[in-house]
Design goal:
Layout: H1 2-72, H2 78-90, E1 98-103, E2 109-111, H3 133-139, E3 145-152, E4 159-169, E5 174-181, H4 183-206, E6 214-219, E7 224-226, H5 233-236, H6 247-257, E8 262-266, E9 276-283, E10 288-295, H7 296-318, H8 321-345, H9 359-362, H10 364-367, H11 371-417, H12 424-427, E11 430-437, E12 445-451, E13 457-464, H13 468-486, H14 492-505, E14 513-520, E15 526-532, E16 537-541, E17 544-548, E18 567-570, E19 576-580, H15 582-585, H16 596-605, H17 613-628, E20 637-644, H18 647-650
Antiparallel strand pairs: 1-2, 1-5, 3-4, 4-5, 6-7, 6-10, 8-9, 9-10, 11-20, 12-13, 13-14, 14-15, 15-18, 16-17, 16-19, 19-20
Helix pairs in contact: 1-2, 1-4, 1-7, 11-13, 13-14
GO molecular function: phosphatase activity
Protein name: SpoIIE family protein phosphatase
GO cellular component, one term: plasma membrane
Length: about 650
């Protein structure tokens, strides 16, 4: 009986523990899902505000250009044109709570729809990052900036939070700001957060663990987010008898040391305290701890009740045991044989198809109230669980196949982003070949090449931090930014700075990309380039390899507003310029050694002097594959090779 009690107690204990863990896991997932939706809504609102402010900024700049044109053509003098422009700004009352102001190099406000702000100094204006945002528009490159900054209310004098678009008007050395109140977004976020807490409280109030257990949520600073029942106040304020730690500190320490849901046994200090089993998990985005508490007596009572029941049955049966022994023995053997036969047939059945349990076996749990009945119940339960596990396995297999299919589609999409072949007018003057082999279904390396408006060719190679889908998405964003920024920038350094600023602008995961940008004059061979933390390219000329040195700055996407230096060199006809990612030099073999730069340089120097870019790239890639000797590829392998055609080829 004691063994049966222990088995039942362990079973109930384990079942209740799993139920508590699953409940807390579901609650934490629900919290993270709600918080994720809240963040997505906030990001969408901010992006909409940015687009609206930028649109208003374009309108303001267009109007100021019109006034400047009047002065430039002599219709009116410059001072009169500026007065008219400032009067127009002062009378400008935008929709959707949007206001425009203008200040000059002295940081004094020249125009504002509200007269109280005209003439004030912006010298002390700082955005939420601590930047002197008004002054930065004159110290920096003049690139338009978005910023969040404090601004006094015109009605009650209280400090509000504004979201502004700062843009420099170079014709008159002014800066105009298009701003709107940002407090609406914060109030909406606060209301949504309050809704999360309310919904969470309603859920936890309906949730009961075991017989009398409960759940609660508290913040990282110890404040209660969702309070437990009143009867648990003494428990929450108690200290553990073994360690002397307060309950909340004990839960915080256990949850932070373990991922997922952790378990803690707790006995309050003092006499007569009840033992508790507690479970906790940490929701990192909100810095909340979701905890559940179950009295240990809830877990032990089923086994004790069973022990009492078995004791009564045993005492009642003791007097007639000898008389009914032979009858009981025959009665016991018959169902056991039936269960044995049923159990032996179980491995041969198709567990994915519904099966009708034989009537004789199905009746055993109700006909036999002893070990045979429990054995039958356990066997039928085991079969039911096996069928459920097989069904889940089939479902998970199907889901995994679907994910693999989606990754294959993502790989096709990524390959579709790679540039198309250059037109014949370009390939007659330059020989360019590029290749990329991803380590996973999708990769984080990138290369691109395209013609600029001035007739020069821009080519790019980069390596995004990380692997898989996140790196592939960051790669696609980087490629798009390269092409977009190239419409406005004509130098490699300015192009690199623009890309870095856009990548670092919204980069919560702190991903980055090493990047090399080269701009080649196809006629003269003049090469202008910038290198953001990428391995230096190799120059192969007349059988000798040299490095294209020069570091412009750190990898892109880490810190905003960093100027990138640019370098110049001459690409002689017939010279091969080889760009690569670290997947080439850091390719490892089955013996643990790396491919390395020296082997790559020896391979390039062994190529014939008239080798095409494709021949060089394919030879290098083939040598890397041969070196790996079947070892799993650990990183993406990307190559881009540029070679100017010799003059006799052009003729």
């Amino acid at each position: 009986m004691l063994i049966t009690q222990r088995a039942v107690t362990d079973t109930v204990y384990g079942s209740e523990e799993r139920a508590a863990i699953n409940a807390l896991r579901l609650v934490s997932l629900d919290i993270e899902a709600r918080y994720g939706q809240l963040l997505r809504e906030k990001i969408a609102t901010v992006r909409s505000s940015r687009a609206q402010l930028e649109s208003h900024g374009n309108t303001v700049e267009s109007t100021l250009n019109s006034f400047a044109a009047l002065a430039k053509t002599g219709v009116i003098d410059r001072a009169a044109a500026q007065r008219l422009a400032l009067d127009w700004i002062n009378e400008l009352h935008g929709s959707d709570n949007i206001q425009v102001m203008v200040y000059d190099r002295s940081l004094r406000v020249l125009a504002h729809p509200q007269a109280g702000f005209r003439g004030i100094s912006l010298n002390l204006l700082r955005d939420m990052k601590g930047r002197a945002i008004a002054e930065d528009m004159y110290r920096g490159s003049g690139v338009p900036l978005f910023g969040v900054y404090p601004w006094p209310s015109a009605t009650n004098g209280e400090i509000d939070t504004h979201f502004g678009y700062f843009r420099r008007f170079a014709a008159w050395d002014w800066v105009f700001v298009v701003g709107s109140e940002a407090g609406t977004v914060e109030r909406t976020v606060a209301a949504k957060r309050k809704e999360i807490v309310t919904a969470l409280g309603e859920t936890l109030n309906r949730l009961t663990l075991a017989r009398s257990g409960f759940s609660f949520v508290f913040a990282d600073n110890g404040d209660m987010v969702v309070s437990p029942p009143d009867r648990a106040s003494a428990l929450l304020n108690g200290r553990d008898a073994a360690t002397g730690q307060p309950l909340r500190e004990l839960l915080k320490q256990a949850a932070e040391d373990t991922t997922g849901v952790t378990h803690v046994s707790f006995r309050p200090e003092g006499t007569g305290g009840e033992d508790w089993e507690l479970y906790a998990t940490y929701v990192k985005p909100l810095k909340w701890y979701v905890a559940g508490a179950v009295p240990r007596s809830d877990l032990m009572s089923p086994g004790r009740a069973l022990l009492r029941q078995q004791g009564l049955v045993f005492l009642a049966m003791l007097g007639v045991a000898m008389l009914l022994a032979w009858l009981y023995a025959s009665r016991l053997i018959r169902p056991l044989k039936l269960l044995t036969r049923y159990a032996r047939e179980l491995p041969d059945r198709d567990l994915t198809v519904a099966h009708q349990v034989p009537k004789a076996v199905a009746e055993l749990p109700t006909r036999y109230r002893d070990e045979v009945g429990r054995l039958a119940t356990t066997l039928l339960y085991m079969e039911q669980q096996l069928r459920g596990n097989v069904a889940r396995l089939m479902s998970e297999t199907s889901a995994r196949e679907r994910i693999e299919s989606e990754l294959s589609i993502a790989r096709d999409i990524q390959l579709g982003l790679l540039p198309i072949r250059l037109v014949p007018e370009v390939t007659e003057r330059v020989d360019l070949f590029a290749t990329m082999t991803a380590a996973k279904e999708v990769g984080g390396d990138l290369y691109d090449y395209f013609m600029l408006g001035d007739g020069r060719m821009c080519f790019v190679i980069g390596d995004v931090s990380g692997k898989g889908v996140p790196a592939a998405m960051f790669m696609a964003i980087t490629r798009t930014l390269v092409r977009a920024a190239a419409r406005d920038e004509s130098s490699a350094g300015d192009l690199m700075s623009a890309i870095n600023d856009r990548l670092a602008e919204h980069n919560p995961n702190m991903m980055f990309v090493t990047l090399f940008i080269g701009i080649l004059d196809l006629d003269s061979g003049a090469l202008q380039y910038a290198n953001a933390g990428h391995p230096p390219l190799w120059l192969l000329h007349e059988g000798k390899v040299t490095l294209l040195t020069g570091r412009s700055g750190p990898a892109c996407g880490v810190v905003e507003d960093i100027p990138y230096a640019e370098f110049d060199c001459h690409l002689a006809p017939g010279t091969l310029l080889v760009g690569y990612t670290d997947g080439v030099t850091e390719a490892d073999s089955t013996d643990g050694s790396f491919y390395g730069d020296d082997r790559a340089l020896r391979l390039l120097e062994s190529l014939p002097h008239d080798s095409s870019s494709q021949t060089a790239a394919e030879a290098l890639h083939a040598d890397v594959v041969h070196f790996a000797n079947g070892a799993e590829q650990a990183d993406d392998i990307t190559l881009i090779v540029v070679r100017r055609h010799p003059s006799e080829t052009l003729s």
